[in-house]
Design brief:
single chain, two-stranded antiparallel ribbon, 2 strands
Length: 55
């Protein structure tokens, strides 16, 4: 079994970090995948900053 933690925050040296990404497949559009990654990251940054916007 393989488990991947997505949209997970962790603390490292007084810094909050997170990872995000998109699923790349044969038919993926690279520009759309990058936009999806930016959208996910923006929502996580909003949560981490306490603005209450979870998307």
């Amino acid at each position: 079994m393989l488990a991947v933690g997505i949209r997970t925050f962790w603390a490292e040296h007084e810094t909050i970090r997170f990872g995000t990404g998109a699923g790349i497949t044969w038919g993926s559009n690279p520009r759309r995948e990058w936009q999806e990654t930016e959208l996910k990251a923006a929502r996580l940054i909003g949560l981490a900053s306490g603005d209450g916007d979870s998307g």
